[in-house]
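Box S1 | Example of a co-folding query
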Amino acid sequence: MKLCLDRYPGGVQRALTMSYDDGIDYDRRLVDIFNRHGIRGTFHLISGKLDQPGFVTAAEVKTLYDGHEVSAHSVTHPHLTQVPFDRIAGEMWEDRKRLEELAGYPVKGMSYPYGSVNDTVAGALAQLGFDYGRTVVSTGNFGIPHDLLRWNPTCHHDNQLMETFDKFLSAWHRDNMLLMYVWGHSYEFERNNNWQLIEQFCAAAGGRTDVWFATNRDIVRYLQALRRLQTSADGRIVHNPSAIPVWISADGEPVQIGGGATVTL
Ligand SMILES: [Zn+2]
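Box S1 (continued) | Returned holo structure for zinc ion
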């Protein structure tokens, strides 16, 4: 029997995640679009800017981003590669603490302000208990991330979004998990007068049964659980030690392994 770790929840092989930076008040309009179409995303907030003109308020963080993910983006948005180490740590740690207080759950992700990252910055992120850091380097492809501390997105939304989505749907997926990761800032839709682009994209993507709509954190947690599966030497017995269900394929057919379950195939 051929086992393959090539499935997302529901047994599908494609996932879509959205990632928006800065916590600008246009997030309200963007979240509404996502919610109407069942699209899910991660919002990287600058905790030091909350309640300032043009930004979302601290009081609305929990409700506005409900169903999505609140993630870090530093307290004051510096180029982290150009500040002393102590300040790097403070920017990440204090942002986490403030956002966790508002969101009510552990904040384990971040996007790097201006995409600025080097070994020191990525190392600090790991040491401070973060699981992932997103860059601004668009890959144009649909691979799952190899280095979560330098998680490169597929594309910015202004970079041939609809064409990239078509490629995503037609990409070769045998024995493979595909991920389309879109990033940007909600104010760009207003500035570039292209809200219709994200409406069109979400209408086209939303409701598809062959795509898993997930936050960045959902994807990280799922990949962690998938990699934690234990299999017997002959590959016929699979144990899932995690609390969440995991899907794999056996001879090309999706199989669900429940949280804590042991399945004989
Ligand atoms: Zn930013």
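The two ends are 9 Å apart (CA to CA). The mean pLDDT is 97.
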